[in-house]
Structure formats: structure tokens, C-alpha cells
Amino acid sequence: MAEADSERRSRRRQMSKDERRAEIIATAADLFEKLGYAGASMDDIAAAVGIGKPTLYHYFRSKSELLWYMHEELIDGLTAAHRARVERGAEPVELLRGVIHDFLENIATRRGQCRVFFENHRELPDADLAVATEKRTRYEAMVEEAVRGGIADGTFRDVDTKLFSLAIFGMSNWAYQWYHSDGKFSHEEIADAFWDYAYRGLRP
């Protein structure tokens, strides 16, 4: 036991600042999943990571700053993945299918982080919330544009782009409430099924 603790301390000493931040974020996300954002304290996070509270505050000044970093990591990742598909000339079908797969991939690999992303972003300080809201709105507009593109080229029937985008988000996002890695379907299979259901409603 003492040897294992010594190895962990040695590994932490060798971590870069970014690696330590990533470890703290991942550990905090697990705690938020188990205890809820309100239920997990900075003391809990420090203890779970295995560092002192002053060290934790060296990396994150508050729990809301942790929430901010979690939100930024997710929304920036979703936006970058979608933009990369657009830039390589992906068709609307691939773009929207990718949106669903991106959400399910994140839910499967970052469940706690997704929970606070969906449930707690409004608890960010006002200035951070304004930036977060702008980024979310921009991402939603990109998805709406993909729907609009499919309507324009005849791939999709004429639907309300805002309403259909919200349907995709609602169907995909809610999976964080019930998805389990040991369930009947993998997250890839769920994403494929969701897209099949959505696409059936879009076909001319």
C-alpha cells in the first residue's frame, strides 16, 4: 500500500501542468456524476485527486472555474469536430450523423462532464455564462445550417430547421441520463439508431 502511494506521488511529480489539470477535471467530473455539482466540494475533489486543497486552488480557483473548463472543453470539441467535417466537404447527412455520434461519444467517455454541461452551465458566473451561451448558440446555428443545406440540395424534405435541430439535441443529449457502457447497445449503435430514426423523418 505504501509502495503504491509512493508510486502515485512520484507520477504526480512528473506530470506537466496540463496533465495535472486534466487529472483534476476527470476526477471532479466523476465526483459530480456521483454526488452532483452542488454536493461535491473542493475538499472532496482534493481528497479524491490525492492532493492538498492549496494545491488544488493553485490549478483551479473555485468550483465554478472547474465547471467553466469542463464546459469549454466539451463545447469547443463539439464545434471543432463539426467544423472539420464542414471544411472537408461532408454532405448534410454525414454532418448531422456526426453531431449525434459526437454527443454519444462524449456521454460514453465523459459522463460526469456531460452531466454538468447539460445541467449546471447556468450556474457559471455571469461573464462566463455569457461566453458559454454564445458558443452554444453558435454551435446550434452550425447544426441548423447543416439541416438547411440538406433541404436546399433536396436530400431532406422541408422542415423547420430550428425545431429539427432541437429534436436531434434532445434525443442525443438525454442519453447521459440512461446510457451505461455495459448496456445492451454500444454508444455507436445507439448513435446509428438515433440517426436512422431522425433521417426517416427527413427523407423527402
UniProtKB/TrEMBL annotation:
Domain of life the protein comes from: Bacteria
Keyword annotations of the record: DNA-binding, Repressor, Transcription, Transcription regulation
Residue ranges constituting the HTH tetR-type domain according to the UniProt record: 18-78
GO BP of this protein: negative regulation of DNA-templated transcription
GO MF annotations, alphabetized: DNA-binding transcription factor activity; transcription cis-regulatory region binding
Pfam families listed in its UniProt record: TetR_C_24, TetR_N
UniProt DNA-binding residue ranges: 41-60
Entry annotated with the keyword Magnesium: no
PANTHER family from the UniProt entry: HTH-TYPE TRANSCRIPTIONAL REGULATOR RUTR, HTH-TYPE TRANSCRIPTIONAL REPRESSOR KSTR2
Protein name as catalogued: TetR family transcriptional regulator
Organism encoding this protein: Actinomadura litoris
